[in-house]
Design goal:
The chain is an all-alpha fold. 56% of the residues lie in helices and 0% in strands. Helix 2 (40-58) packs across helix 5 and helix 3 packs across helix 6 (141-153).
Length: 180
């Protein structure tokens, strides 16, 4: 094969893909309803793209020490105020909002703790098309690291331990938000 044949073949292939994509979009063939799951191919493609994006962007995040009990308490207070509706708390049953979410948010208390640099990046910047907000627009890096400190402990907390942490922290989250 000549170079011209190879380039022409690639150009034709790209043109066909573009025309097919335009047809799918133009005719509304792909169902974007939240109660309709993605196809297995699209789910896998999105997962790969999301994970690579997070890996690349979290690579240079410097993780501070996360074992300070005060950080964990503050993180519990923020998590309880901002995250339990989607990610639940230890021992918390399914709520009426989560089944209608696509993708369904992970129950963080029932998973092993993730890479803290990646958790920080996700909390700070959010994730498109997941309902995960970018908390970095309203919260300081210190507050986000407090949430990460809690997330590192969350899979090991009983419901009673979680509730005790939240109670110890108090409820000053709303006061803090008024200062931002």
């Amino acid at each position: 094969m000549t170079m011209r044949t190879i380039v022409s073949s690639i150009a034709i292939f790209i043109a066909v893909v573009v025309v097919l994509a335009a047809a799918v979009i133009g005719f509304g063939l792909y169902d974007f309803a939240a109660d309709s799951p993605h196809t297995a191919f699209v789910t896998k493609l999105i997962a790969i793209a999301r994970e690579r994006s997070i890996d690349v962007r979290a690579e240079d995040v410097k993780v501070p020490p996360l074992s300070d009990p005060a950080m964990i308490r503050e993180g519990a207070e923020h998590y309880d105020a901002m995250c339990v509706s989607c990610h639940l708390a230890p021992g918390m049953p399914e709520n009426e909002m989560r089944p209608g979410m696509n993708p369904k948010p992970p129950v963080l208390a029932s998973m092993p703790a993730d890479d803290p640099a990646e958790q920080f990046w996700i909390i700070k910047h959010g994730l498109k098309m997941t309902a995960m907000p970018a908390w970095g627009t309203t919260h300081s890096d210190e507050e986000i690291w407090n949430m990460v400190a809690l997330l590192q402990k969350l899979p090991h907390l009983s419901p009673a331990q979680y509730r005790a942490l939240v109670k110890e922290a108090g409820h000053h989250h709303d006061e803090m938000d008024m200062h931002h």
